[in-house]
Amino acid sequence: MVSIVNDVLVLALFAIGFMFFVGGTVGLLRCPDLYARLHPATKCDTLGACSITLALSIEAGFDFAVLKLVLVIFLLLLTSAPSGHAIGRSAWLSGIRPWTKEA
Fold first, then answer.
1. DSSP letter at 100?
2. 49 lies in which domain range?
3. Within 10 A of 15 (CB to CB), how many other CB atoms are there?
4. How far apart are CA 52 and CA 37, in angstroms?
5. CA-CA distance, 1 to 11, in Å (whole number)?
6. How many domains does the chain have?
7. Of residues 21 and 102, which shows the higher confidence score?
8. pLDDT in tens, 60-81
9. Are the beta carbons of 21 and 48 closer than 8 angstroms?
C-alpha cells in the first residue's frame, strides 16, 4: 500500500514539474521581449525543477542521495529569483528597453 502511494506521489510531482516546464517553454516562445520572458523562465526553473527533484528524492528513499537532492532543491530556490533579477537589471543597465505595442 505504501508503495502505491509513493508511486502516485512521485508521478504527480513529475507531472507538475512537466507542466511547469511546458508552460515555461510556451511562455518563452510567446512573450515578446526579454523582460516578459524572464518570468516564465524563472518559474519554470524554480517550480518545475524543484518538483521533479523532489519526486526523485522520494523515489530514492532514505539514502545519502536524498541529502544531495535536497541540497539541489535548496540551491535552486536560493539562486533562481536573484539570477532572473540580475539578468533583468543588467539588460536594463545595458539599455535594452521593454517592448511596447505600437498602434
1. -
2. 2-93
3. 13
4. 22
5. 16
6. 1
7. 21
8. 888 888 898 889 889 988 998 8
9. yes
